[in-house]
Predict the structure.
Amino acid sequence: MWAIETESIAKTVGTDRQLFAGLSIAVAPGEIVAITGESGVGKSTLLNILAGLDDAEAGEVLIEGVALGPLDDAARTRLRRERIGFVFQAFHILPYLTLQQNVTLPLALISPDSAAAKARADEMLAAVGLGDRGRDYARDLSGGELQRVAIARALVHRPAVILADEPTGNLDPETAGRVLDLFARAVRSRGAAAVIVTHSAATAAVADRLLKLTADGLKPTDG
């Protein structure tokens, strides 16, 4: 079964500007796919459609074989909480919570077992090299450390799908390289499927496949 699959989806913005049509993609568990393209072509919109935050006008999106189209808002929310992890360019880490508290947030939405959530958060912080920092506050971290916390939070609930929007856009090249290596190892070791939207050739280089988004859909590219 594909972790992520789209069947000929289409999206138009405004009254008549078509972003893409006939867009089909399948991403296997453990695979990382990078999507590039010109600004405004619809890369972030595509991520939102994959997450069920936006609707395609045609076609269907399936997450582990579950079609998003027939789901109501509550069912889509449950699916996102349980099966999808997000890594954002702007981190979205809450500065006045500890690292452990930030990482447990996805688990708190799924289960009331706070002891298990804290243990799982500590495990993930250790995996990203912050195992001794769980009681520290996010406001005291560097950009690279914040992005590592964001990766730990995205993976803490063992999602089947990771969606990342310019995950290293705010980092210097050296820090970005370390974060990308960590991200790729963490995703593959857990058998998740990842889709990364990026303008960065360095970010795209960690992917198993590189695709370019155009109005005609996704096309394979060598860079």
